[in-house]
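OP here, attaching both records as promised.
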Amino acid sequence: MDIGGVARRMTFTVDGQTVARLRRGATARIEVPGGSHVVRARMDWLRSVPLEVRVDEAAPVSVTAALTEHSTTFTGTFLRPDTALDIRASPARA
């Protein structure tokens, strides 16, 4: 059983389009036009809530996602799978 998601990939979407499928610890650089975008993460049936990200070409944004403690519970896994992944945005490091 892969409780920590080590062998699985997390899929990232921007505005509903898949932009990356990453293994744990991997990174990807995705170029999108400036403006507001909706980012989500999925791993199997587990998912994050939609995250609205404002992109400014002069200030890149970094998005990270991770399994939450809810991902190992019955409720988080089966009844509320949208609580299983945490997604956050922060200014990108240079």
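Record two, same layout:
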Amino acid sequence: MLKERGLAATEVRACTSSCLDTCWVGPTISVQPDDYFYGNVTEADLPEIIDALEKDERVERLVLEPSDFMMPKEVAVAEKEYKERLEREGS
């Protein structure tokens, strides 16, 4: 797909990687040097992602948030601690 659009030679590089530590958000794409990640990517998302790369834009519905890099258990613990802190502070 990248080659067909003329992006493979100069603009976009598709390559494999070792673990990105985001198993729980499904297939992941790292966009560098812009430093963001797409998660839960399906093959059907690829044309939209490539369109966005051509326009120097992002597909916001697929962009991972910082909390997506926490294991689900860590997220649950962080949410519990936050709620407990709010209760202690009377908020």
